[in-house]
Amino acid sequence: MLPRLTNILLLTSFLLYAHHSYAAEAISRVCDPTRTNTQYTGYRIDRQITLDHGFVKKHETHFSVCKDGSLVNDMVINVENKDDIALPWGLNLCFSNGGATNGACYKMARRKEYVKRSLDAFSPARHIGGLFQLAESVNPKNKKFTDEEYRPLVPLLSDSIFNQWLEYRKDDNVKVYHIPLIYTPDMDGKKYKLNERWYSLISANELYEYSTESINIYRRSFSLLLDSLKQATRNSNKKIQSLYKLTSDAKPTRKAIKSYNDKRVTGNLAHIFKHKIDDLAKERFNKQGIDFSTVMVLSQVLPKDQFSLLIRDLETVYEQIGLNDEFFKYPLSQ
User: Where are the domains of the chain?
Assistant: First the structure.
């Protein structure tokens, strides 16, 4: 009896272990970038940069749908300008019929104070906008819809770019660099309670009114941002120069690209944003705004606390601009 009981216990232990292992593997890293093993339900937007045999192949923005930690749907948005953060503001994001989303159409919209910014960076966990779903009763093939034809779904929060990670696909020698950008709170009501009127200050079509004075203040504010950027770049000149030397020498760069350990991603970033490192090393700045590539390079050369403080200081410049509140009603929210 004892040997039989022992075998049963061993088999039970194995099955429990196997079930636990499967459950852990079922949680997608896209849905859980910090590896907290959370069964997250919601939406995430990240930049994915594909490296094929060490060469940058493509930049994409991914709009991902997660259910209990699993990736159930994913939409790819091509990135036309690799320097831009390339978030799909103002686009109707429609999934094909079938599957978890079954032809649903969504739209990402920013809060009024985030629309005119010339800064492709956010401090983590900022409420920067909302995700809206197009009413099922309208034809998604139409090009334009009123705010009232959208249903407020869930707030959009800024993610931390420090949650970046590298996916290695051994079968085709492809590496995909993931940079989390936006996420929604966990839509499990037990984990997150939404403010009942979180959407009242957001226009689904971003149809806001700005005074001439506020527009001029936005333009003048960018010069302050640019001064702060130049100072931060000069303070980090040695590190930028070392990255520049790394990208100038093909052998070290290729060697760095071979690494796919999350703790050794600097070499990969140096290769991906080589053109921007070259610009910053020579103090050439984008006069239209502080772009995504610049932010990514600074996140590597500045200590984490200094980088976070810099972004916070840059955001403060915009927060000091006084804007009048506008209120929006959504009949479909009822």
Answer: 29-209+328-333, 212-319
